[in-house]
Amino acid sequence: MMSELGPEDSGRNIVDIIFKSSWLRKDGPLYKIERILKVHNTQRTIQRFEDCRDAVKSHAHASTRKEPRSAADGNELLRFHCTTVSCSLGSRGSTSLCSNIPGCRVCTIIRHGFHAKTLRLGSGSNEIKGVRTTASSGRAHDALRCFDQRRAMLVCRVIAGRVRRGQSDAPEDENDSCSYDSVAGAAGVYTNLDDLAVLNPKAILPCFVVIYKVSEP
User: Fold this and answer.
1) Which PANTHER family match (predicted)?
2) Which of 164, 165, 188, 197 has the highest count of CB atoms within 10 angstroms of its CB?
């Protein structure tokens, strides 16, 4: 289900550039990439992801609201999600997922997919249930509140669909919340989608895992 991307692999260079260019943290912490792994998703996982895309596109075509991106490709985005790694994944060339479920979060996600949690995207915001994704690797790192030096950064394809942006977009009727596929946090320094909570975990497809270590400058 996992394989390592070597220095000769063009895919590794692309992921490396995506990770580094979106770290956006000149004041630290410092990081060192150990391994970049490619996720080989099962056909079932891929089909569920594509089913999410089809559902979003169908809803967009039927809606009176104009959602061109949703109608075209489900509003697919490249997003980051940082999590913990408590096994030897990535060490000494290891690409095997451990069975420490749910202790090792990265292996749990790769094996069983993401799970929605209760989130609050910023002070004063309402609680929502979904999976937090970010536009940059640095933001994803900050969002994971832990002291582990060794972490896993998942680079994911996300069907964002119709995005609720702030309280002004909030439905008057709570039952209408199902008309949104994701919820954006407050506008950030680099993008207005720094934080995005995806309501359907199946709409997130992990493609690469960057195993890295951090140290304070």
Assistant:
1) C2H2-LIKE ZINC FINGER PROTEIN, C2H2-TYPE DOMAIN-CONTAINING PROTEIN
2) 197
